[in-house]
């Protein structure tokens, strides 16, 4: 027998509505991508099973009904879409990378235009050729209206099989272009280089991807930017890290402490904690943990956190339910869910 409910007569009419959200790490595959190739790559590189990979890629390839239905269920007004890893960065030939990036950005812009305000996007660029990357970044932002750029980890290159990292001097003109355009760079994980995988993860494929491998790969890349002086040379540059900062908010004190003991040649203007609070933004993508959220707020502040789900590799509805009840102030909740993204990307609602 159902229990007798007390009448609720004074609640405001929208009291049961979820808080609105802007989600900023939500992925898709390019127009010429074969979904089956993506399924096989997920299984081959990460140790994840084929059933999960098939479901994720079905969601990844959809740019309409499946994606929009989940956004509606999670209270997400706008998703900022980005090309999934390994993206343009894996392409060894610069000319092919340039052509592919342009096609992906045009494809994304078409879907944004037809989405009735539900989609925005991050550009893809071919950093195999820095001048071409700068030209495409400017076209993507100024002509297509994209909100920044997403880079999937290190950049594959014929001259350096192990990859190029964004603290290297060759990328300084690209950082300047980002700062001049006043748009952020989202640094997204990529599977570790094959030589690293073969040594460190031998016999443990379960550790390679999101379980563990993505975090140290991406955190190391971010630390290279800091200790390589990127933000001293380009103080207006902004970088977004997903997954609650790829462990850096938690480890920042110890990293800085150990760095100050070193006798080597790297010297910075500020502490790591200062760069995290001034040049970095952190998203909640794929990390729906109260403890991690509070640690990030204590390290960099609620003004630097952004909501994301990591669609299609996580459920947006799980991300939404968590942030709506996380033990934080209502002001911080609103900033994280939509206010900070509106300010960073200039999204008017």
Automatic annotation (TrEMBL):
A Gene Ontology biological process in which this protein takes part is: secondary metabolic process
In its UniProt record, a GO molecular function of this protein is:
hydrolase activity
Pfam families on file: Amidohydro_2
Its cellular-component GO annotations read: cytosol
Annotated Amidohydrolase-related domain residues: 67-347
Q: Which InterPro entries match?
A: ACMSD (IPR032465), Amidohydro-rel (IPR006680), Metal_Hydrolase (IPR032466)
Please provide the record's keywords in A-Z order: Lyase
- Report what the protein is called: Amidohydrolase
Organism the protein comes from = Sphingobium yanoikuyae (Sphingomonas yanoikuyae)
Lineage, uppermost ranks: Bacteria, Pseudomonadati, Pseudomonadota, Alphaproteobacteria, Sphingomonadales
């Amino acid at each position: 027998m159902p229990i007798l409910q007390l009448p609720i007569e004074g609640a405001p009419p929208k009291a049961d509505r979820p808080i609105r959200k802007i989600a900023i790490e939500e992925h898709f595959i390019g127009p010429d991508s074969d979904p089956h190739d993506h399924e096989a790559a997920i299984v081959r590189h990460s140790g994840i099973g084929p059933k999960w990979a098939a479901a994720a890629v079905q969601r990844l390839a959809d740019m309409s009904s499946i994606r929009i239905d989940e956004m509606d269920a999670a209270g997400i007004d706008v998703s900022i879409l980005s090309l999934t890893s390994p993206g343009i960065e894996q392409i060894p030939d610069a000319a092919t990378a340039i052509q592919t990036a342009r096609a992906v950005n045009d494809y994304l812009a078409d879907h944004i235009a037809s989405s009735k305000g539900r989609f925005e996007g991050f550009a893809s660029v071919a950093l195999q050729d820095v001048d071409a990357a700068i030209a495409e970044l400017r076209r993507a932002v100024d002509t297509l209206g994209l909100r920044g750029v997403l880079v999937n980890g290190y950049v594959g290159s014929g001259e350096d099989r192990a990859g190029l990292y964004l603290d290297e001097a060759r990328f300084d003109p690209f950082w300047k272009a980002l700062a001049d355009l006043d748009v952020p760079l989202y640094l997204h994980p990529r599977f570790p280089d094959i030589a690293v995988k073969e040594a460190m993860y031998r016999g443990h494929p379960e550790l390679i991807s999101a379980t563990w491998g993505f975090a140290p790969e991406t955190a190391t890349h971010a630390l290279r930017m800091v200790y390589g002086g990127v933000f001293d040379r380009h103080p207006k540059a902004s970088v977004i890290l997903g997954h609650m900062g790829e462990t850096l908010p938690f480890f920042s004190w110890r990293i800085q402490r150990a760095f100050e003991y070193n006798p080597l040649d790297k010297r910075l203007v500020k502490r790591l904690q200062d760069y995290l609070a001034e040049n970095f933004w952190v998203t909640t993508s794929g990390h729906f943990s109260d403890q991690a959220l509070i640690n990030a707020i204590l390290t960099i502040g609620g003004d630097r956190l952004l909501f994301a789900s990591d669609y299609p590799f996580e459920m947006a509805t799980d991300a939404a339910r968590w942030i709506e009840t996380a033990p934080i102030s209502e002001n911080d909740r609103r900033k994280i869910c939509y206010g900070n993204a509106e300010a960073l990307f200039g999204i008017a609602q």
